[in-house]
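tool_call: predict_structure(chain=1)
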Amino acid sequence: MTSIAMAADTSVGRRKWPTHIVVFLAPAFLVYSIFSIYPLIDTIRLSLYATDDTGAAHFIGIGNFVTLLTDPVWAKPFWNAFRNNMVFFAIHMIVQTSIGLALAALLSLPRLFRTRRGSIPATIPYLRVPPDAARRWRPKLSGLRGLKAGIVWAGNAAHTNDFRRSLDLTMLAPLFAIPGMAWASLQVGPRAADLAGLAIRARDLRHRHARPERGAHSGEHLITGAHATTP
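tool_result:
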């Protein structure tokens, strides 16, 4: 047996202590011990003692518990508080458990209905155009070189929030200068005329002014170019 094999056998028998677990758990355990475990233990210890008139503590065992459960002065408030806590606990557990089980049941629906990726009624891509329109525009769009991207820079000017939805086309000029990109304008309405005043000198850049056309069957918007210009 080679030395490497012997070392491997030895390492299997001696697993390294997972110190990282201690590092992660130690802070939480320390805080929980100081603020929860220690006060609980000390409270139990103090319940086994009673003080006399001088303030000295004397061990009496379960004497305090006997007084609490049998003395009418203490027993009635105790059992009333105990009953209220049980009602609160029951309501809390019923609501919490019911919500948890309901969420778990929702997560289990795909398994119960034997749902598979192929059985999900979703066609990808979600945005589609009629086949005849795709055939008509494929040759035109194929003339654009590089990565193709559409862009809109303005919304309805009458919208109350238009100042957050629209911007000056010249602010996007640095995007149009990115090499290897072909931009298609999807802007409609009066702001589509902004293209005429935009001077772009980036090489291999084409702009296509587009207008939305509603498909006959899909009900989705088809981007159709009105004209194309090459700077």
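agent: The first strand starts at residue 49 and ends at 51. Proceeding to next step.
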